[in-house]
UniProtKB/TrEMBL annotation:
<dbReference type="InterPro" id="IPR015424">
    <property type="entry name" value="PyrdxlP-dep_Trfase"/>
</dbReference>
<dbReference type="InterPro" id="IPR015421">
    <property type="entry name" value="PyrdxlP-dep_Trfase_major"/>
</dbReference>
<dbReference type="InterPro" id="IPR049704">
    <property type="entry name" value="Aminotrans_3_PPA_site"/>
</dbReference>
<dbReference type="InterPro" id="IPR015422">
    <property type="entry name" value="PyrdxlP-dep_Trfase_small"/>
</dbReference>
<dbReference type="GO" id="GO:0030170">
    <property type="term" value="F:pyridoxal phosphate binding"/>
</dbReference>
<comment type="similarity">
    <text>Belongs to the class-III pyridoxal-phosphate-dependent aminotransferase family.</text>
</comment>
<protein>
    <submittedName>
        <fullName>L-2,4-diaminobutyrate transaminase</fullName>
    </submittedName>
</protein>
<dbReference type="Pfam" id="PF00202">
    <property type="entry name" value="Aminotran_3"/>
</dbReference>
<keyword id="KW-0663">Pyridoxal phosphate</keyword>
<keyword id="KW-0032">Aminotransferase</keyword>
<dbReference type="InterPro" id="IPR005814">
    <property type="entry name" value="Aminotrans_3"/>
</dbReference>
<dbReference type="GO" id="GO:0008483">
    <property type="term" value="F:transaminase activity"/>
</dbReference>
<keyword id="KW-0808">Transferase</keyword>
Length: 455
């Protein structure tokens, strides 16, 4: 077996990691952690540490680690049929079965599932379908997409543009011209402290209306949003937000894409976030929770009113030229089937609701009054603690102080993984949906101790 030192050297010399400070990593100045195994909500690393994974990988290992049912389903599929493509009407029993299972779980009004590999390509698919739709309807100028500042929708060319975080634009010449951004529904950062949640929702709506007016409603095709802002800070929407936004979109014939890559398949305690907030999306983007990351797979779920036009479009124009070699990969589909069965068998959607509420309540009890905690917020199995320099004045820390990252490092020292969200001093938690109350207690206790150590 390779020594740890040798493996670490190969890592530095050969591996270009995603979302990483490349130079520091190559020089050996950045942390290296090699993960070797996982069981339930815990992972182990090569140094022998056993860590409670409070972020389920990248909020994706929803059923937890080490599930033999999924591993066996993957192995069986690989033996029987590792691959065949899905072009021109081909399929496998696994991909067809999974499509049926996804549609059985999808919110009302959805018509078909299109499978890709991850959240970014599913959003690329959705934007192409929207452009195709408007071209078929004879509205070639209706193409712009509105997303929110702090939204996260991936890091491709279009999806990186939709993402509203500077880190993903800087030096990449993004965003592309077809993408425009509007206000994030982020109550803690509202422009005027005296605004109630309802007033802030009204403010977000007026910002959206003004943007649509300025750009021209006939140029705007769709609005994309995560039911709960994820990577932008784990921010549930203020009261009445989605109903109000839906009203504006309907008035201007603008489609709604619910990006449910994080919230899809149970994380909010409902199968989809759209169910949770009463959203009526035309397209749903899903990935992570579809297979709990046991294999890469995404599903763009297409609503009926789009499906009807897309189908008509192919009658008029022939085959729709959009597909990936690995669309509906049988091994991903087998993982998806076993994963969705397990979610049902173990009641994980319900557990996300109950243990998630417990985690959020306990975190608020322990840290809600801390002078440097601006807010404890969350929904379902998502929880965030936002640190502030001055709670009364809503003054935030200078980002260069890295307070959030320091708390996360102090938590790691104590055996719990949290995520320092990329913009702001925000400690993000998104544990596997199978988290127990005892594990939630451990996360809360560790966060409290770490905040006490750093602040
Ligand atoms: N959309 C949302 C809401 C996400 O959180 C992510 C990833 O975190 C993506 C899209 C992109 O997914 P992927 O990283 O699988 O491309």
């Amino acid at each position: 077996m390779l020594s740890n030192d040798e493996l670490a050297r190969w890592d530095r010399d050969s591996f270009m990691h995603p979302s990483t400070h490349l130079a520091q990593f190559a020089r050996g100045e950045a942390p290296q952690r090699i993960i070797t195994g996982g069981e339930g909500c815990h992972i182990t690393d090569r140094d022998g540490n056993r860590l409670l994974d409070g972020f389920a990988g990248l909020y994706c290992v929803n059923v937890g680690y080490g599930r033999t049912q999924i591993a066996e389903a993957i192995a069986k599929q690989a033996h029987e049929l590792a691959y065949y493509h899905a072009y021109a009407g081909h399929g496998s029993e696994a991909s067809i079965t999974l499509a049926k299972m996804v549609m059985d779980r999808a919110p009302e009004g959805m018509a078909r599932a299109y499978f890709g590999l991850g959240g970014s390509d599913a959003n690329e698919t959705n934007i192409k379908l929207i452009w195709y739709y408007n071209n078929i309807l004879g509205r070639p100028e209706k193409k712009k997409i509105i997303s929110r500042w702090r939204g996260y929708h991936g890091s491709g060319l279009m999806t990186g543009s939709l993402t509203g975080l500077d880190l993903f634009h800087k030096k990449f010449d993004l965003p592309l011209a077809q993408v425009i951004h509007t206000e994030a529904p982020y109550y803690l950062r509202r422009p005027d402290a005296s605004m109630s949640e309802g007033e802030f929702t009204g403010y977000c709506v007026r910002q959206l209306e003004a943007l649509i007016e300025a750009e021209g409603p006939d140029t705007i095709a769709a609005f994309i949003g995560e039911p709960v802002l994820g990577t932008g800070g784990i921010v549930p929407p203020p009261a009445g937000y989605w109903q109000a936004i839906q009203g504006v979109l309907d008035a201007h014939d603008i489609l709604l894409v619910a990006d449910e890559v994080v919230t899809g398949f149970g994380r909010l305690g409902t199968m989809f976030g759209s169910d949770h907030y009463g959203m009526k999306p035309d397209l749903i983007t899903s990935a992570k929770g579809l297979t709990s990351a046991y294999a890469p797979l995404s599903a763009s779920i297409v609503g009926q009113r789009m499906w009807d036009v897309l189908a008509r479009g192919t009658d008029e124009n022939g085959v729709m030229g959009h597909g990936w070699t690995y669309s509906a990969h049988p091994i991903g589909a087998a993982a998806g089937i076993a994963n969705l069965k397990l979610i049902d068998e173990l009641g994980l959607v319900e557990n996300a609701g109950t243990v998630g509420a417990y985690l959020n309540r306990r975190m608020a009890e322990e840290l809600g009054d801390h002078p440097h905690v601006g807010e404890v917020r969350g929904e379902g199995m998502l929880c965030a603690v936002e640190l502030v320099a001055d709670r009364e004045a809503r003054r935030f820390f200078d980002p260069s102080e890295g307070k959030g990252a320091k708390v996360v490092a102090a938590m790691l020292k104590r055996g719990v993984i949290a995520r320092a969200m990329p913009q702001g001093d925000i400690i993000g938690l998104a544990p596997p949906l199978c988290l127990s109350e005892a594990e939630a207690d451990q996360i809360v206790e560790t966060t409290r101790e770490a905040v006490r150590e750093v602040l």
